[in-house]
Write a structure and sequence with these properties.
7 strands, about 425 residues, DNA polymerase, domain 1, HRDC-like_sf, flat, alpha/beta, two-stranded parallel ribbon, about 10% strand, Nucleotidyltransferase, domain 5, 5-stranded mixed sheet
């Protein structure tokens, strides 16, 4: 008896766009023709952008993909055509469809492109409770088609771009309109259309991210460095690397790996020869820059004591890491546990990811400095912290009760609060 289980038929694979793969536009005449075509087109516009993260220092776009009914698919080379405000004007009030819009909107804004309306297919999936929201996965789930993928981590600053990369890029916008329509229908059926509208607007209007405080502390492995002098060397090497990487427009990790910086900081080499004796620094490429790197090491070694960085770092955030709450304020720690339980329960009830129901940072700040435990005050505080109206409506009542933690509850032993 054959006990093999029947297998589901494999979904059809979309290898190329239906209308073929266009060549990237590189001239003003080609762009002008596209502007006319897009302006005469109808319906929403599918958009995407490819960067060269991991290869280049900048986060600029190296390819822009666009598709609209009546205009077809276009690929634009923003190296040759860095001003696309005319294209944005041609779209006008038309809706932009992007997947993970917060990743692409900044580099599109650098080109003069800003949406008047937005639909984010990844965010729509999260609001519907989907945990796997990669574009290919969502196209398979909702449209029953597999996309030819494989070049998301490519160096898109490469010129000329290989044909198979262009296929991949064009496919990223091939089915976005169809996916948007399916997701919009599901959101409407679930009563979540207004949720989505508010979330999309929040992404569209989000301000540009400011510079990080002490970005060098994000070095991989920096937790191994606990001495202030060693930290000064790590900071000096990070700054030297960052300056050189920006000058050459190369990703910092390709200039000098984080592990090499941490190793040099921990060993504090006293001579350039000693530095060259460390792994990585002895290689031919790093030997050419040995003077630069050793100069940074010397600067860190010779820094006056009063200028050494602190071990724990400088924080402008008045709210401490949640892992310290049990010791500093056990009542606040109990409030945080109660609030997180509320969000998790409501997220399950409404089939939405907890982080999208209410951002963890909003929950953390609400629990640390709670308002008066009455619903109007909690609603006001949630709005101040950036919660959207739909989020406030769903969570305010339950969070009001969760914030009213009695002293006896806080004093009971319990699990540590994690970040």
């Amino acid at each position: 008896m054959d006990e093999t289980q029947p297998t589901e038929p494999e979904l059809p694979l979309l290898r190329e766009p239906a209308d073929g793969v266009p060549e990237p536009l590189t001239t003003s005449a080609q762009l002008s023709a596209l502007v006319d075509a897009v302006g005469a087109g109808t319906g929403p516009v599918a958009l995407d952008a490819e960067r060269a993260s991991g290869y280049r220092y900048s986060q600029r776009a190296y390819l822009v993909q666009l598709r609209r009914a009546g205009a077809g698919t276009a690929l634009i080379d923003p190296i040759e055509l860095p001003a696309l405000s005319g294209l944005s004007a041609a779209i006008g009030d038309g809706e932009w469809i992007l997947h993970a819009a917060n990743q692409d909107l900044p580099c599109l804004a650098e080109l003069g492109m800003r949406p008047a309306a937005l639909f984010d297919t990844e965010l729509a999936g999260r609001l519907l409770g989907d945990e796997r929201v990669a574009l290919g996965t969502m196209v398979e789930q909702h449209l029953g088609v597999r996309l030819e993928k494989g070049h998301s981590a490519a160096d898109w600053s490469t010129r000329p771009l290989p044909h198979d990369w262009l296929v991949y890029a064009a496919l990223d916008v091939e089915l976005l309109v169809e996916l948007r329509d399916v997701l919009a229908g599901l959101l409407a059926a679930a009563g979540k259309s207004e949720w989505a509208r508010q979330e999309f607007e929040a992404v569209r209007l989000a301000p540009a991210a400011g510079p990080r405080v002490e970005p060098w502390r994000r070095l991989s492995g920096i937790h191994k460095v606990r001495d202030r002098r060693q930290l000064a060397v790590a900071r000096a090497l990070w700054e030297a690397r960052d300056s050189y990487a920006a000058q050459r427009d190369v990703a910092p990790g390709r200039v000098l790996p984080d592990a090499a910086i941490v190793e040099a900081a921990r060993t504090l080499p006293a001579t350039s020869a000693a530095l060259a004796g460390l792994s990585v620094f002895g290689g031919p490429r790093q030997r050419r820059q040995l003077g630069r790197w050793f100069g940074a090491v010397q600067a860190g070694r010779e820094l006056p004591e009063r200028q050494l960085p602190t071990v724990t770092g400088v924080s402008t955030d008045p709210v401490p890491p949640a892992s310290r709450w049990r010791d500093r304020d056990p009542i606040a720690a109990a409030r945080l546990v109660a609030c997180r339980d509320v969000v998790a329960t409501l997220a399950e009830q409404h089939t939405v990811l907890a982080q999208n129901l209410l951002a963890s940072d909003v929950v953390r700040r609400l629990a640390w400095e709670p308002p008066t435990p009455d619903e109007p005050s909690v609603r006001s505080r949630l709005a101040e912290l950036g919660a959207r109206p739909w989020q406030v409506e769903l969570t305010a009542a339950a969070l009001t009760a969760a914030l009213d933690v009695p002293q006896t509850t806080a004093s009971r032993p319990g699990p540590d609060v994690e970040m």
